[in-house]
């Protein structure tokens, strides 16, 4: 089980394939297994790096770690790329991972060749941010009442991806994800959603990027994508599936992003 100490945390990672480096950053529950199938498909052309974000799954919670931030998560990703000799890399982020990928472009431009940002939940840029959070908050509260943080993760993902998709995930992956409830509920939820770089910083991004929105996703994600594209010049690309196409449409996702990872639209 490979791991490396980065930014004061032991980070579990997986490498597949050969070729130009591509890093995948997971969102809620932070497990490398989110992208296992996608990584295997892309390993024919790329060196694919996936990892468990700090305090999630096999990246054990550091002693005394009681808070986190976008900057800390981004520093972890940058350090991992540098320590493994993979910088600069193309970075794909889903959900929270898309926020971290964007912050990489702003704060660690030397490690990013290009970025693909799938539905960053930058709730603060919405016209009605409270409305976008109400349903998620209700699902989390229901899960907490039923069985604490593990049940909250279960209820959260059933709300986000649907019962059928959640139940189809490998048992080991689902078990790891639900075991990350203390990190998700206790440290992460509500911490990253307010991320909002100023317009001048976004206008200064020089690396190419794309903002992806699922064809079945709520309109709030399209609103965020348009807001971000207007400030960066990134192209908005429709993707198959919903908020987590790596779970419900992995083959279609790979067909969509492969040319973007190569640097072509």
Question: How would you sum up this structure, described in words?
Answer:
- There is one protein chain.
- The protein is of the alpha/beta class.
- A hairpin with a 2-residue loop joins strand 1 and strand 2.
- Strands 1-2-4-3-5-6-7-8 form an eight-stranded mixed β-sheet, with helices on both faces.
- It has a single domain, classed as Alpha/Beta hydrolase fold, catalytic domain (Rossmann fold, 3-Layer(aba) Sandwich).
- The relative contact order is 0.15.
- It is 47% helix and 17% strand.
- Helix 4 runs antiparallel to helix 6.
- The longest helix has 33 residues.
- It is built from eleven helices and eight strands.
- Pfam families: Abhydrolase_6.
- GO terms for molecular function: hydrolase activity.
- It comes from Streptomyces kurssanovii.
Show the helix and strand layout.
Layout: E1 3-6, E2 9-16, E3 21-25, H1 36-42, E4 47-51, H2 70-83, E5 89-94, H3 96-107, E6 112-118, H4 129-161, H5 163-168, H6 171-179, H7 181-188, H8 199-203, E7 209-214, H9 219-232, E8 235-239, H10 245-248, H11 250-262
Parallel strand pairs: 3-4, 3-5, 5-6, 6-7, 7-8
Antiparallel strand pairs: 1-2, 2-4
């Amino acid at each position: 089980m490979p791991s490396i100490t980065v930014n004061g945390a032991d980070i579990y990672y997986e490498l597949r394939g050969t070729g130009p480096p591509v890093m995948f950053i997971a969102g809620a529950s932070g497990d490398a297994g989110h992208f296992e199938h996608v990584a295997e498909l892309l390993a024919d052309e790329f060196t694919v790096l996936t990892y468990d974000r700090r305090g999630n799954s096999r990246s054990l919670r550091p002693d005394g770690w009681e808070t986190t931030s976008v900057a800390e998560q981004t520093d972890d990703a940058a350090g991992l790329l540098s320590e493994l000799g993979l910088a600069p890399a193309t970075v794909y982020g889903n959900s929270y991972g898309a926020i971290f990928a964007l912050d990489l472009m702003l704060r660690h431009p030397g490690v990013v060749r290009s970025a693909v940002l799938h539905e960053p939940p930058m709730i603060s840029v919405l016209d009605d941010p409270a409305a976008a959070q109400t349903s998620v908050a209700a699902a989390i509260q229901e899960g907490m009442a039923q069985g604490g943080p593990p049940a909250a993760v279960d209820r959260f993902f059933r709300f986000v991806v649907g019962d059928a998709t959640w139940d189809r995930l490998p048992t080991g992956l689902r078990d790891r994800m639900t075991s990350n409830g203390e990190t998700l509920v206790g440290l992460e939820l509500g911490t990253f959603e307010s991320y909002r770089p100023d317009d001048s910083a976004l206008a200064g991004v020089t690396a190419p990027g794309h903002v992806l929105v699922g064809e079945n996703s709520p309109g709030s994600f399209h609103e965020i994508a348009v807001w971000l594209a207007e400030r960066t010049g990134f192209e908005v690309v429709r993707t198959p599936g919903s908020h987590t196409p790596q779970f419900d449409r992995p083959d279609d996702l790979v067909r969509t992003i492969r040319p973007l990872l190569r640097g072509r639209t």
